[in-house]
TrEMBL record:
This protein's GO CC annotations: chromosome
Classification via Gene3D superfamilies: 1.10.10.2830, 3.90.1530.30
Domain ParB-like N-terminal: 13-100
Protein's UniProt name: ParB-like N-terminal domain-containing protein
SMART domains for this protein: ParB
Taxonomy, superkingdom: Bacteria
Species whose genome carries this gene: Acetobacter persici
GO term, biological process aspect, one: chromosome segregation
Amino acid sequence: MNMSVPQPLSAVVSIPLADIDVGERLRGVDVDAAAVIAASMQEQGQRTPIEVRKSGKRYRLIAGAHRMRALELAGIETAFAVVVKADDLQAQLLEIDENICRRELSPLDKATFLARRKEVYEELHPETKHGGDRKSDQVDSLVHLIPSFTEATAQKLGLDARSIRRSVARYTSIVPDVREIIANTWLASSGAQLDALARETPDVQRQIADFVTKWDGVRNISEILRQIRNQPRKKAPTIYDKLVALWTRADEQTRLKFHEFLQPGLSLEDSE
C-alpha cells in the first residue's frame, strides 16, 4: 500500500532549461497564454517556481509547462524550481492537481484531468477501487482509513463530490476520438452540451463532432441532431398548448380553483 506523499528535496534552486525534460502533458501549452506570462517575466522575472523531479543526471517537469514555455519565449535560460521526490504516478498526480485548480480549464479539460486522476489514484491505492485488491488481512483492516477517489479529491481540491462524478462520467462516456476532435471547439466549454453529447452512441457522437467542426453557428446538441437527422423544426407551442399542458399536470384541487375562476364569465354568458 503506497501511502507516501511527495516531498520537496530542497528549497528553490536554479536549473538550466536545457536540463529539464517536459515530456508528454495531459494538456497542451497555450502559446498565447505563455506569451502573456513571458511578457510579465521580462519585467518582473519568474515569480513562481516550477516543480521538477530528478531523472538520472537530468530533471523531468512535474508542474509548470506554461512557465517553462514562457521562460523560453522571454529568452531566460534558467528556471527557478522546487525539486520534488516523486515516482511516476505521484508526479502525474501533482501535475493533474495543479491543472485542476486552474480557473481557465474548460469542462472537457476538467473532465480529462479528473478522469486521469481517478486512474492514478486507484493505481496508487487499488484497495479503494470497487472490487479492488484485498489480498491480505492487513489491507482489509486498513482499507477504511484510505478515502475513496471521490472523497480524497473533494477534500484535497475543494471540489463538490457530485461535480467530480459528473466530470468523470463525461470523460468516460465520450469516445476518445471525439474528445480529441472537440477539444478546441465551443463544445468543450459547455458542460450541459457535453452531457447531451455523452448520452449519444459513439457513432452519433462522431457525427455531432464532425458537424461542430464544420458549422460553428449551431451550438445546441438537440438542434444539431435535428439537422443531422433532417427532422422538421418543432413549432413553438401556442398559449393554448401551454394551457392544455398545465391542465394535464394539474391536480384536482387546482382544476377546481380554475373552474371557480371561469365560473363568473360562464354565468354572464348564460344570462345573456
